[in-house]
Amino acid sequence: MKKTKIIGWIAAVIIGFTACKNSSTTDTGSAEKEKGEVKIDGSSTVYPITEAIAEEYRKEQPDVKVTAGESGTGGGMKKFTVGEIDICDASRTIKPAEDSLAKANKIDYVELKIAFDGLCIVVNPANKFLDNITTEELKKLWEPEAQGKVKKWNQVNAAWSAEEVHLFGPGTASGTFDYFTEEIVGAKGKSRGDYTASEDDNVLVQGVAGDKNALGYFGLAYFENNKDKLKNVKVNGIAPSKETVMNGTYKPLSRPLFIYVNKASFAKPGVKAFVKYYIDNVKSIVGDVGYIPLHDDEYAKTQKVFEDATK
Fold it and tell me: Which phi and psi angles does 165 have, rounded to 5°?
């Protein structure tokens, strides 16, 4: 065989092998490499979902810097409405005052519903008398008028302990605080102030776990991740779970969760691709971190909102 034919044959093999390799890469759906930065802050309730998705995304797109904080929904909104972050995790809808601030700063945004959550009422496992609490008893315990007056368990229910009750709950910057006070007390932001407050749910978990006379509230996922340290209390006879949240029987402490995205950020490198990845994968991830996925038709609506915002 002549030398030129041998060289031609080798070249053909190399070209064919490369074509097959490229075809194989395309067939497996390998993502185009992205670059850029995505800044996120907000709800400590939504944070585990966002961080789980970000962790998976970083494996596929290591050149995109995704940073997520958890300063509470209110804390995140303060940054979001002045353009400091691209995405705000939120365990409630945006407030009118926050919307007005966003408009004043020319922040046009999109609201994307991503999951359901249930709020848990928890006590220390050493508590043997409290298995169920009514919304009326919760109100009596948490309403502003209780401050400095309702100090013992048996002031709420005569059958309960005569010892002091020690309360733990989210701080005022938390969307969980807003939701709980609106549903239980009857007015958003109205609560007794003499309790241990934190926007970090892990602090609340540790507080209740370390005090036999403690009662607290936070998202279902944090209970699921710490059920060996805590005791879940039924509300009006119903325990929070994936099933009771999805079928609507756990009332009134079931709620949707959101992310808010600055539309201007979709033009920044990495943000649009990250949000698309978020929406495409959130249904399969939320259950792994203790939350409840939306119904398929609601995810379809979220997808449509995203597509319309990025046309």
Answer: -100, 135
